[in-house]
Fold:
Amino acid sequence: MTEIDVWTEKYRPDTLSEVVGQEKIVDRLTSFVEEDSIPHLMFAGPAGTGKTTCAMSLAQDLYGDSWRQNFMETNASDERGIDVVRERIKDFARTKPVNADYKIIFLDEADALTQDAQQALRRTMEQFSDNCRFILSCNYSSKIIDPIQSRCAVFRFNRLDDEDVEKYITRIAENEGFKISREAIDAVLRVSGGDLRRVTNVLQTASMTEDKIEEEDIYGASASLKPDETEEILEKALKGDFIDARGHLADIMIERGLDGQDVINAIHTKAEPLISR
Ligand SMILES: Nc1ncnc2c1ncn2[C@@H]1O[C@H](COP(=O)(O)OP(=O)(O)OP(=O)(O)O)[C@@H](O)[C@H]1O
Ligand SMILES: [Mg+2]
Structure:
């Protein structure tokens, strides 16, 4: 069986200079690399905005070819518990860094840890801070206990803006040799909400069946309602035609495999300009 490339890996930058947007963050991380002095870091922000990418790129810029020996990525909230995570950290920290003074441990989903687990993590960070730097990744920094936050330089990642997302789309389209209409690009901007993982996955799915990607293909590939469908259903329901609106929605959900969250997201996107008026 031939393996298909997973575009989210294929297009993941492997150096900080290729990271899209997040300029202030990239600048500071680059100067850490130049000075060869990295504090503990905390990356906070929404999905698909470059937290894991920046951690991996930083490690590659810092360590060059020996980055894999000096960099460990692990999920802080491993379902088997914080003790398993701490064991893994201990194992990795036990051996010497290769051609470097310290190793980097990247802990994903740190905000899913309970307060007690975070206390345990803090002790582990202290225990190994001689030869390890920690990068904690989370969606919400407010869920991280103060004693950890105060030990880290905190970086806030933003959703990518339309201009950056569009450049990313164009780069992938040129490289993969498919065409994409203006309407389809706008649809990608709409359904992705500045999440580049979502952008990449939607494009990969849509391009499997089409050489020229149109708006329809994006909605088909992205598990989301089209704006005019959402409007039609909302209007029906608001006019009192609730059963009919529900039937229509159910048909679309089954046809396109949408779940409740997809529908709520679509309604929220549609209603947002009305609410903020
Ligand atoms: N700023 C960025 N520059 C370039 N590519 C990016 C950027 N942000 C995300 N991507 C792309 O999107 C995908 C996911 O990115 P990444 O793993 O860094 O997200 P994340 O912020 O760690 O998300 P999560 O919170 O879900 O872990 C990767 O393929 C990556 O190439
Ligand atoms: Mg990540």
In short: The mean pLDDT is 91. The pocket of magnesium ion (ligand 2) is lined by residues 51-52, 108, 137 (CB under 6 Å).
